Structure formats: structure tokens, C-alpha cells
Amino acid sequence: MKNITIAIDGFSSTGKSTLAKELAKHLGYIYVDTGAMYRAVTLFSMQNGFISKDSLDKDSLINSLSNIKIYFQFNSELGFAEMYLNSENVEKEIRTIEVSSFVSKIAEISEVRSKLVEQQQEMGKNKAIVMDGRDIGTVVFPDAELKIFMTASPETRAQRRFDELQAKGDDVSYQEVLANVQERDYIDTHRVDSPLVMAEDAIEIDNSYLTREEQFEVVLELANEIINI
Description:
Helix content is 48%, strand content 17%. By secondary structure, the protein is α/β, with parallel strands linked by helices. The strands form 2 sheets. A 5-stranded parallel beta sheet has the order 2-6-1-7-8. Strand 3 (70-75) and strand 4 (80-85) form a beta hairpin. Helix 2 (34-47) packs across helix 4 (97-107) and helix 4 packs parallel to helix 8.
């Protein structure tokens, strides 16, 4: 068997991270959640007053990029790696609706993308990696052996995200979550630098009506076909 790079791209709240974690665990691969990296930079921006509902101080953020240290640390009890920002575990903080409302705007900034893409490429230089995000198959690993593009209707994705936030005790409405999903879709697909598009050689999976198990089996079969060639 050979080691390959698996790139999973797609819209927000399509379950990319869940699929990627399961796939990496099954194959014994490294998993990298690039969305968490952008969320960590977004949290840093919020903490330092660089972004709010009414403003974005792009220059101050760019000038502070050297002060942002982000990395993953494996949590054996949870079975996956958690995100750390400047030595602080921020795994819970980066998953809030507030961070979600700003992350696509932070991800638009070319200097931020350049910094994180460089780190992501370094993480995957030895292959045997599953990475999910928005531009993994088009920018980070254009030569990935397996590229998956995940999609589902905005309403389906909003309901999933709403249920997840409710389970965590967050006080949000479905309409608020749906509006956030739709806004992120627009920003992600219309940004100038590395917009969300499906790579020409990617396999599209609409999981609107697929269970988590069904989706996993489909992608695992695709991966095994390539690994075992």
C-alpha cells in the first residue's frame, strides 16, 4: 500500500471535519483541520479588536501575523488534536457562532491565507494526510491523489449546525445560523484570493440525504481504490 494525500473541500457545515477525522483514524493518517486554523486567527483578531460587526482593521492584523502561533496538540482522551493559539487551548472558543460570523472575512485576506497555506503544505510534505478546508485540492495540494468536494443545501447545513450549537448550549436561532451559512457561502465563493471552487479532478458528494456512515463508506472505498493500486 502507498501513502496518499486526501484533500476534502466544500461548503461550511457539510461535515468535512467529521469525515476527515474518521477517515484519518481508519487509515492511520494525520488529520489537519484547516478551518480551525482560520478560526484561530479570527479569534485572535476578535481578542485584539481587529474585527467587529462594523469594521475590519486588516493592516493591524497583517502586522500582527508574526505574533500568532497556532498548532494542533493531540488529546488522547478525546481521540483527536485540539487547536492551540499562543499556547492556549481554544478548541471550544473557535467553534462559536461569533467566530463563524467573522471567519470568512478573515480568510479573504491574502496575507493570512499565504501564512496558513505555507504551514499546511509543510504538514503534508510526507503524505499520509487528510486535510479539509476550502482550497485544499485547488491551492494547498493541487496534486493530491484523492480530492473530495462536499456539498448540501444551505437549509440542511444550517439545521445541522443549529442542532450542534444547541447541543453545546449556545443560545442561537435557526434563522441566525441559516443567514450565517448563506453569508459564508457568498464570501467563500466570491473572494479574489483562492475562492471556494471544485477542482476539476475532484469527486463531488452531496450528502444532503446521506447518513454519516454512508458517506464514510463511499469515501473510504474511493481512498482504498487509490491506496491499493
